[in-house]
Structures are given as C-alpha cells and as structure tokens.
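Troubleshooting log. The previous structure file for this entry was overwritten by mistake, so regenerating from the original sequence record. Sequence copied from the archived sheet and checked twice against the printout by T.R.
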Amino acid sequence: MDYAKHISAQINVGIRQVEKTIELLEQGATVPFIARYRKEATGNLNEVQIAAIRDMLLKLKELDKRRDAILQSIEEQGKLTPELKALIDNAESMTELEDLYLPYRPKRKTRASMAIEKGLQPLADALQKQYQCNVEQLAMPYVNEEKGVNSVEEALGGARDIIAERVSEDIAARNKVRNLFRRNAMLISKVVKNKEEEAGKFQSWFDWKENAMRAPSHRILAMFRGESEGMLRVKIAPEDDEQVLEALERQFVRGNYESSEQVAEAVKDSYKRLIAPSIETEFYNILKERADKEAIKVFAENLRQLLLASPLGQKRTLAIDPGFRTGCKVVCLDAQGQLIHNETIYPFTSVREERAAVSKLEALVEAFHIEAIAIGNGTAGRETEEVVKRCRFKNKVIAVMVSESGASVYSASDVARAEFPEYDVTVRGAVSIGRRLMDPLSELVKIDPKSIGVGQYQHDVDQSMLHDSLEDVVISCVNSVGVELNTASKELLSYVSGIGPSLAAKIVDYRNRKGAFHNRHELLQVERLGDKAFEQCAGFLRVRESDNPLDRSAVHPERYALVERMAANVGATVEELMKDKELRSKIDISKFVSDDCGLPTLQDIMRELDKPGLDPRAKFEIFEFDKNVTKIEDLQEGMVLPGIVTNITAFGAFVDVGVHQDGLVHISQMANRRVNDPNEVIHLHQHVQVKVIEVDLRRHRISLSMKQV
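Regenerated output below.
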C-alpha cells in the first residue's frame, strides 16, 4: 500500500508533505521536533497533523500485517486464487479484509460444519439453485441414520444451516445489513429485571431509544457502563427487521418454488442467528470507539489546559494541606520548591488552638520570608482559607486555593518516596500543593494523567488509546514550554523530545555527580546520549547560566552558526543582537534562506532572539471565592458567584464556587454558545461568574448558569 497517498487523501495534506513526515518519523524524529524544527521539510505542518500522520501510518502497518497473515492462511489451505489475492491486496479497511477472510477462517464446530460432515452439502447446493422440485423427494436420499440424519426434515434443516452460513459470509449481504444498520439502527437500553432500585444512577436509561449513529458520546458511555455493571441491557438494531430481510431476500431468493421457500427460511435464520449479532457487535465497537475518541479528546484538552495553567513562578511558598480532626500539614518551600520546614497546626480543634495556628503561620511567614500561601481545596480548604485571612503578616503575602486532585496519588507514589524518603504522605501532599502553585506543569508530570480528575468516563474508555493520547498532550506541553536542564526533575526531563525515562535518569545522575551543566553541548557527555538524541532534545532544553546566550532560547544548536552570521552581518555579537531590537531590525532574513532553512525557521529564530525562552503560559491571576459562601447550604437560587472551571465535558462544565461540591453548567446554560462544544466558550481554570439556578441538597447537586450573568 502507498502509505503517503492513502494518508494524504484521508487528512487532506499534500503527498510530498506526508512523505517527508513519514521519512522523519521513520528516522526516529519526534512529533514536537518535526513540528518545531523541520517546518521546511513538512510544509509547516503542526503537531496535530503530524500526530495524525503518525497514527494513520501505524494503523496502515497493522492492516498490512493482518493482510499478510490472511494471505498466508488462505494459501496454506490451497484456496488462494489470483482474483482473491487481488481483492485482499486492494482491501483498504480491516472490516473489508475480515469479510474477505470470513469464508476461509478456521472455524470451531458450527451447525453448518456438522451438516457438511453428515453429507448434506450437495442438498444445500441443489436447494440454492431454486429449481422447481419436490424438496422432500430431493432430500429423501440424504436420510441416513448412520450419519445422524434421521428424517427428511433433519436433512432439509441441515441444508438450510449450510445455506445460512453461506449467506452470512457473503460480502454483499453483510454490506447490505451494515448500510441498513448505519441508516436505521437504534440504540436501545432497558433496565435489567428486578434491578430498578440498585440501578438508580442509570434511571435515565431504563427505557431509552435513539438513533445509534447520532447518539452523543456521553450517553453511549453511560449506557455501556450500565450494561457492564449488569444494570442495563443494551441493544443495537434496526427498528424494522423486515426491511433488512426484504433486502436479503431480494439478493438470495429467486423464484416462488418450494426450494425458494427453503432458501428464504435459511436467509431469515442467517440474519437473526448469524449476521445481525455479528453486525451488532461491529456497530457496538464502532460506537464505543467513536465515544472513546470524543471522551478522550475532551480529557486531553482539559489536561492540556491544566498543564499549561499559569505558574506563579519562583516564589518562597508556604503550602497547607487542610484537615479538620487530623490538623493541617504546613510546609515551607524555597523559591526552587525545595522543602525547608514542615509541621502541623490544629486550627479547628479549639479557640485556643486556632489562635496558636494563626500565630504559627504569622511566625513561619516572617521566618522563611514567605511570598505566597497555597491552600489545598479539599476538605477544610475554605475554612483554612478563612484562618489564613485572619493572619496579620508584616509583608504582602498572596493566598491561593490550589486543586488537590491527584496530590494523594503523588504522595503515595514511588516518585514521592524517592524524593522524600524520610517524610510521610501528608508532608509529600502539602509539598505537591505548594509546587503546583509555583509551576503546575513541573509538578503534574509526576502524576499519572488519569489520576488528575479532568476526564469524562475515563475508566470506561480504551485505556491504551487514553494513555497514548494523554502522553501526547504531556509531551506537547512540556516541549512547548521548554525545560531548564539544571533544575528539572527526572519525570519532567523524561517527557522532553528524544529523552525518555532511561536517559532522563542518566542526565540527573550526571548532574548529581558533575554539578550543573555549563551548556547544551555538555549533554553529549551523558552516557548513551548520542547525536540523534541530542538533535531531538537540545532545542527544548534551557541552560540559563550558559556562556552562550542561545542556550537560554529555543534556537536549536544546529542554527547557532546561522545566528552568528546574522550577528556578524550587522557588526555585533550574538548577545548584543539579542539585547538590541534596533540591530535585529537591520537583518534581512531573506538573505539567509537556504535549501534546508526557509522563512518559517528564520522567522522562529527572530522571534526567539526577541524574547528568548519566553514562557507561552498566561500570566498568573489571583482568584477569590465569595467570602459569604463556604458550604452548599449557603447557596440560594438566583445568587451570582465567582467560580473557577474545574472540568469540561461534552455536556457542560463543572465550576467550583467554594462549597466543596462543584456545580454543573449544562451546555444549554453556556453564555454566548456558538456550537455544542463548551471548549468554544470556556477553558479549564477560567475565572467565571455563575448564577445558581437550582440546589439539590439531598443529592448534593448544584445547577449553575453562565447566561446573562
């Protein structure tokens, strides 16, 4: 198969662009590297397009692998004809391949195979010719008690079984049924008998029916989850089977004879017993894959927004992991996020302890020159925030609520144990909360993305597909921001283009033994980090203290000589060129165009010289909840409150208004909604104003609106 031609047609990208991208991928180049540093080769394709080419290439290779296995199997059976080989060679989908293979697939014992063993195949052949005849007389010679055929009816039944299997293996017949399913199949859900009470959370789907191919992903996944838990029975089938049967009978039934009636009966049996269940399974998988992709897309976009959340930056931080009975774990971190002090305060056990907690916080802030306070947003979070507000600090200190989602996963992980072997999980959790405020990306990469809690039905979707998609997002975010080589954790380094966990560990080991890297090229002294890995990673790593100012930028080392020529062209050093906008304005980049370095790369270089190593993340903004609302009982319909978006799904967005229970803004309540996609309107961690439209205290549900707020 011509991979480039096929992919080009599928994603509407030029064949030459696809060919060059495939060539780079086959050479071991990563998606971020190709998108950032090989724009001329790919015609300026972005990461999404390059990833699509990579994924389609893998699927096509899997298709060819399956094609080869099928050809080998049929050839070993001695049944491979030139015509069949041509059909298999030209098949463009797994479904088409499997349909062609179906008649030749080694089968377990079936009703048809048992009938053939009883010698009934000639009778089936005769009936399928549909001549005018007496079918009982035709079947009589096949009655043979020794072979297990005890009557004419048994002979005819066996022959019908053979015909039914032939019908089920006919490609045209299967495609007819497929097309009718595609147009008319309904997704039908019923509650399992006597499970009504137990299945309460699936009540919406107790008696549900809708067009299967138009069902939204969240409803499909909800029903499929109900089925997997044994609460619902889900079926995918056309509303009217007669339409399907008529189409099949038009194909197989010719004439109005007794033999034709036998064929018609076999066709009906084939549809009910063989084709319909097979196609239903196929469509179940189609719906599941489509729903998985949509849910994973939502999860991936949420994760991207979370990872690229605004960092506070390198500030001396006091972090609090709140708790009522067990107290609040307090840690103090230096500007690099290193733990320098920890202890526990108990502000909620008595008035005396509350006063002691306030005094302790004031003392810690002064002693460690704290600039910011991070407060976990879980249990006792709002109450702890109130305690902090009662403190009287000598200098200005900002206090910020920080999401705890996934912090407990990190605190109990091998990564946390290796970093803080002498401290318990409560200290590790508090450290994670503080670091998340300083740099969300650097801290969140230590946690399995699935544990961060910004997904929709994340445990129901294809886990391999979810893992690959989320890893792509993490890699994309890490490389778009860039990584400081001398301070990055092993986990953060492992996501840098071309590095991975093994090389990341060796980089950290080298750094621990030899001290800080002096420049990018020193990376080549790391064990097993060769020229290819250096090519892939160097541009995404920063060495702020390097003697070469370009090491602080995203300019790739392969272009250093080019920048030096630019500087020489205006009679300056590289450092002078980076500092002086007027000098840069004198450069005519068109004069530096070459076969492998075109205008896109030159424009990127000029942007980097202007703002070397610029962090693409938005500026940090402080957010505060309504001080009069701390619990769900404080909410009243009609209230307008500040909130922060915590999760986005296909059906709406969840917003934290500071009552320990997120409220739902249904998609119908989105402000200025243009399409059925909340990502078009809002983003994760966005500060919003919402109106309370309903509070269900019994079920702990809050309904919010962003309309006319």
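The first strand starts at residue 185 and ends at 191. Archived copy saved in two places this time.
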